[in-house]
Design a protein that fits this description.
- Two copies of one chain form a homodimer.
- The first copy, chain A, is built from seven helices and ten strands.
- In chain A, the strands form three sheets. In chain A, strands 4-5-6-9-8-7 form a six-stranded antiparallel sheet. Chain A has a two-stranded antiparallel ribbon with strand order 1-2.
- Chain A is globular.
- Chain A has helices spanning about 15-30, 40-50, 55-65, 85-90, 120-125, 170-180, 200-205; strands spanning about 70, 75-80, 95, 105-115, 130-140, 145-155, 185-195, 210-220, 225-235, 240-245.
- The first copy, chain A, folds into two domains: about 5-80, Winged helix-like DNA-binding domain superfamily/Winged helix DNA-binding domain (Arc Repressor Mutant, subunit A), CATH 1.10.10; about 85-240, 3-Layer(aba) Sandwich (Chorismate lyase).
- In chain A, about 25% of the residues lie in helices and about 35% in strands.
- The first copy, chain A, starts with 15 loop residues before the first helix and ends with a strand.
- With about 240 residues, chain A is an alpha+beta fold.
- In chain A, a hairpin with a 2-residue loop joins strand 5 (about 130-140) and strand 6 (about 145-155).
- In chain A, helix 1 (about 15-30) packs across helix 3 (about 55-65) and helix 2 (about 40-50) crosses helix 3 (about 55-65).
- The interface of A and B includes residues 90, 210, 211, 233 and 241 of A.
- Chain A binds a DNA duplex (19 and 19 nucleotides) through helix 3.
Chain lengths: ~240, ~240
DNA sequence: TAGTGGTCTAGACCACTAG
DNA sequence: TAGTGGTCTAGACCACTAC
């Protein structure tokens, strides 16, 4: 059986496995399959979509490569979860002199509601003046102040985030568990800047000290921006590590 | 036929396709297949290794994902070449305000022979005091000085590089064509530093200006380091872009 | 033992490229 | 038209996990 049945009869522009992948992605975005859930087996999915098991496998393999699914032999296929380890490994690139990652401690400075300025609106894909929540925090590496961070998110997506007393170390975990927003990928723009107040005071350095500025836009599963974050980092002892394949 | 014949009879610790991949990688490292060469067809390779075409395909797919091979439907499978475009796309991450990459112009400052210091020796995996070649150059973006670059390579791998009058814009292309050394991947460590002489003069800025320092170790196909490069970049108008999957 | 994903095979047909 | 990679199927067996 080479003709798609359940998927549609129109002459296809995309290969079957890509259509299966897109359908599964839709379910993930819609929240029909949630982080931690186990998916049906390959054969069940194959039946459901009216394709062979090999075709489902190719779709599953790609979603696994995209870090959306996790497959475990003998157990099943699961929707990826943002545990601390994954967040650290995927989204935190500062390493010590030995090249090893360290989980930074976080110290909350403030959480405030506000209205989006032009830059925030551009970065978050919302209209200027829309309600946002801004978070300031200081992160320490090896016990010393290392990162001054400013985070902005649309209030619409995270309604009561501003009321939370204690913000966990890995925010993405909170986004996922409490608001059903999964961070799928991010784009960072790095630059070297001179420290200004109030970052300098927070980091206990003199203004003018060079800092590594990481400007990150984080995107949800559907590709829409959901968080804008600027981290200014001391790189005297730590470095930002990139691997080019 | 499920038992490997040409590949070996010992109880295998690795799947067949991984063994096939490793064998093909060996040939690539040995230079038996050189950049630009066309590989035998999937069926020919399958015959040669004594496996099925599907198994060869899986190995080829992975090598393609690793950017070692390029597959073109209807034409064949080829060993990847480091043309300007690929070098720019893979190894150059500075983008303009619009997010678009620009190919920088290069201005050669000096090419000198020398003996490896401790840091060079560590980075290049050679003994201290081994002959190295050092290159200094200035790179411009949009006509303005933007990057002060220092490059060190082992003289052993690039014998007459020091005699070359004109160094092309994309060095990796030269490494590949002239010396048969293919840069497969690289590791970069980024930090913010204050400009010092002689970089400040080269970049026409005042000492102390924050610069983005990119410390890159480039690795050949066999995984051994072959180039150490430090680029200090003005990031007033340009940014270093990273995509996190 | 039953169920899952992981590997491997064999064969069919399609889409693209070149002569 | 011949040869290549791209897709899809069907079925076998292996390796791992849980009960």
């Amino acid at each position: 059986m080479n003709k798609p049945t359940d998927i549609g009869e129109a002459p296809r522009a995309q290969p079957l496995y890509a259509q299966v992948k897109a359908l599964m992605m839709q379910r993930l975005i819609a929240g029909q399959w949630r982080p931690g859930d186990m998916l049906p087996s390959e054969f069940q999915l194959a039946d459901e979509f009216g394709v062979s098991q090999g075709t489902v496998r190719k779709a599953l393999d790609e979603l696994t490569a995209d870090n959306v699914l996790v497959r475990r032999q003998g157990r099943g296929t699961f929707v990826a979860e943002h545990d601390d380890h994954r967040a650290l490994f995927h989204f935190f690139h500062l390493v010590g002199p030995d090249g090893q990652r360290r989980l930074p401690e976080s110290q909350l400075i403030s959480v405030r509601k506000g209205l989006a300025g032009q830059i925030e609106a551009d970065r978050l894909g919302i209209v200027r003046g829309a309600p946002v929540i801004r978070i300031r925090r200081l992160r320490c590496l090896d016990g010393r102040p290392a990162i001054a961070e400013t985070i902005a998110v649309p209030q619409k997506l995270f309604p009561d985030l501003a009321d939370i007393r204690e913000v966990p170390n890995t925010l993405y975990d909170l986004y996922e568990r409490r608001y059903g927003v999964t961070i799928a990928r991010a784009v960072e723009r790095l630059a070297a800047v001179a420290a200004e107040e109030p970052d300098a005071e927070l980091l206990e350095i003199t203004p003018g000290t060079p800092l590594l500025e990481i400007d990150r836009t984080a995107l949800a599963l559907d590709g829409k921006p959901v968080e804008w974050r600027v981290s200014r980092c001391l790189t005297a002892t730590h470095h930002y590590r990139v691997e080019l394949g």
